[in-house]
Amino acid sequence: MPISYRTLFLLEADAFSLVEIKLLDVQSDDPAEVYFWLQFEKANHTLHKLDFLSMNKDGEEQQREFRQGKLQFNQTSGTYTPAEAAEPVALEPQGTAQLPAELDDAIQRYFISG
After folding, report:
1. How many of the other CB atoms lie within 10 Å of CB of 13?
2. Bridge pairing between strands 69-73 and 5-12
3. Cβ atoms of residues 23 and 4 within 8 Å
4. Helix, strand or coil for residue 111?
5. Which of 26, 53, 90, 91 is at a distance of 20 to 30 A from 70, taking alpha carbons?
6. Which helix (H) or strand (E) segment is 105 a member of?
7. CB–CB of 81/21 below 8 Å?
8. Using CA atoms, how far apart are residues 69 and 15, in angstroms rounded to an integer?
9. d(C-alpha 94, C-alpha 15), whole Å
10. Across the strands, what pairs with 56?
11. How far apart (Å, rounded) are the C-alpha atoms in residues 9 and 86?
12. Number of separate domains in the chain
């Protein structure tokens, strides 16, 4: 049975996508059980959970910090700086109404095999 979720943010780079989802079937007061940031590697269709550390919002600019790196974005652009890299990767925010099929498939596999 497919999991039910809502896409909150989707940011695209050439090699990967970053997506935040909210699970709709989980009843919990713990945000870590409901909200997930995931990195989708386009070349091999693998999905990795990002370990959330903190978030901030300054006007339209949003920031997220993960163990794996730092993300900054607004409605028109974004950057992700992996912890092991010195150079940030440019991201393009996308609409969240419909995810690419391969990304949705990876999310479904991730939570079903979980």
Report:
1. 16
2. unpaired
3. yes
4. helix
5. 26
6. helix 101-113
7. no
8. 16
9. 15
10. 63
11. 24
12. 1
How far is it between the farthest Cα atoms of the chain?
41
Residues 81 and 87: beta-carbon distance below 8 Å: yes
Torsion 1-112-68-31 (CA) sign = positive
Contact 106, 23 (CB under 8 A): no
Place of tokens 């999310």: 107
Amino acid at 9: F
Do 20 and 36 meet the contact criterion of CB atoms below 8 Å apart?
Answer: yes
Residues whose CB falls within 8 Å of the CB of residue 30, separated by 6 or more in sequence, listed in order? none
For the full predicted model, state whether its pTM sits above 0.85: yes
Give the position of tokens 């979720």. Answer: 5
Domain that residue 89 falls in:
5-113
Please give the Cα distance from 23 to 31 (Å, whole number): 10
